[in-house]
From TrEMBL:
Species, as recorded: Alkalibacillus haloalkaliphilus
InterPro entries linked: HD/PDEase_dom, HD_domain
Keywords of this entry: Hydrolase
GO terms assigned for molecular function: hydrolase activity
HD domain span: 26-126
Keyword Hydrolase appears in the UniProt entry: yes
Record-given protein name: Phosphohydrolase
Cross-referenced PANTHER family: HD_PDEASE DOMAIN-CONTAINING PROTEIN (PTHR33594:SF1), SUPERFAMILY HYDROLASE, PUTATIVE (AFU_ORTHOLOGUE AFUA_1G03035)-RELATED (PTHR33594)
Length: 214
């Protein structure tokens, strides 16, 4: 099948699956990650078809969204079969979506396309959109926006932090402000710099307003 149609069909497939998603991995997260992926992939001369397909499918096997990761992986594979994606490309796409999550940060990323999609996914967690997602997540969990008695604990692992049910502002220190340095590609890094700076400015303003000072 023509790659353009495969991408269009996959968009439909993912959109239907994630329409009702409420954990910050809704369809619009995917749509933004796809756009970022195109921008970075073009700059980095990565394979566009592989990168876009992996971006579209990257959250379908996330254990926050699915109970059975293996079954979800199997379903994605069946989808790729149905679209007649060649075996070699299937292996590459499945490899990317299995290795890009933050938890597996120390996993060796096997290809440029994996690096591109991971950068795009991480970029969507920072900057103005990242801030919005952070507060939306905190609200959904019933967490506070900020607790000045709670010192930011920069070295806490993501697992420890989840258990602790920290505030939205603490999440900046636990994750968001670390993402810029974790960019794989130079295009990703350039995009991250602006978003990072924006978050720092945001925090400065936030603390100023919190204290009620001029
Ligand atoms: P990923 O897309 O890397 O799997 P997560 O599921 O950890 O990300 O997070 C989804 C979105 O919710 C991201 O924008 C992330 O920054 C945000 N988020 C995750 N955990 C928290 C938290 N404890 N407090 C606030 N926002 C969070
Ligand atoms: Ni994602």
């Amino acid at each position: 099948m023509n790659q353009k149609f495969v991408i269009q069909n996959t968009e439909e497939f993912v959109r239907t699956k994630l329409e009702q998603e409420g954990t910050g991995h809704d369809w619009w997260h995917i749509a933004r990650v796809v756009e970022l992926t195109k921008t970075i992939a073009e700059d980095e001369e990565a394979n566009l078809f592989i990168s876009i397909m992996a971006a579209l499918l990257h959250d379908l096997i996330d254990d926050k969204l699915v109970e059975d990761k293996e079954a979800a992986l199997h379903e994605v594979k069946s989808w790729l079969d149905s679209q007649q994606v060649v075996e070699h490309d299937q292996v590459h796409i499945l490899d990317i979506i299995q290795t890009i999550s933050f938890k597996e940060a120390h996993n060796h990323l096997t290809s440029l396309e994996a690096q591109v999609v991971q950068d795009a996914d991480r970029l969507d967690a920072i900057g103005a959109v990242g801030i919005a997602r952070c507060f939306a997540f905190a609200g959904a969990k019933g967490n506070l926006i900020h607790d000045p008695d709670e010192e930011p604990e920069i070295n806490m692992s993501q697992e420890q932090y989840r258990e602790k049910n920290g505030t939205a502002i603490n999440h900046f220190y636990e994750k968001l402000l670390k993402l810029k340095e974790l960019m794989n590609t130079s295009t990703g890094y350039q995009l991250a710099e602006e978003r990072h700076q924006f978050m720092e400015q945001y925090l400065e303003q936030f603390y100023k307003e919190w204290k009620g000072i001029r």
